[in-house]
């Protein structure tokens, strides 16, 4: 039961982070328009600090 609560909290943190920072991200929109969606997506995954935070949450979910 404890593991479920931790998982739920992590999923809530992920959702909140996506809604707060990623929903209207100006950098993503700029890169998407200038260099295409794949480049913008890769930027978010590899270079954005919010992407790093989301990856850390994902690693915690996989533990």
What does this structure look like?
The protein is elongated. The chain has 63 residues and is an all-alpha fold. Helices cover 87% and strands 0% of the residues.
Topology:
Layout: H1 2-22, H2 26-35, H3 37-46, H4 49-62
Mind summarizing the main beta sheet? none
Query: How much of the residues is beta strand, in percent?
Result: under 5%
Order of helices and strands: HHHH
Structural class: mainly alpha
Radius of gyration: 14 Å
SS field, number of helical segments: 4
| Strands, count | 0
Average per-residue pLDDT, rounded, comes to: 93
Alpha-carbon distance between the termini? 15 Å
Outline: elongated
Q: Helical percent range? A: over 70%
- The residue ranges in which pLDDT falls below 50 over 5 or more consecutive positions are none
Pfam families: zf-C2HCIx2C
Keywords: Metal-binding, Zinc, Zinc-finger
Protein name: Zinc-finger domain-containing protein
InterPro entries: DUF2602
Quick summary of this structure?
One of its GO terms (molecular function) is zinc ion binding. By secondary structure, the chain is mainly α.
Keywords:
single chain; 63 residues; 4 helices; mainly alpha; 0% strand
């Amino acid at each position: 039961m404890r593991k479920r609560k931790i998982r739920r909290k992590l999923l809530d943190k992920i959702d909140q982070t996506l809604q707060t920072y990623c929903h209207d991200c100006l950098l993503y929109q700029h890169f998407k328009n200038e260099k295409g969606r794949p480049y913008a997506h890769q930027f978010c995954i590899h270079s954005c600090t919010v992407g790093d935070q989301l990856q850390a949450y994902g690693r915690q979910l996989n533990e």
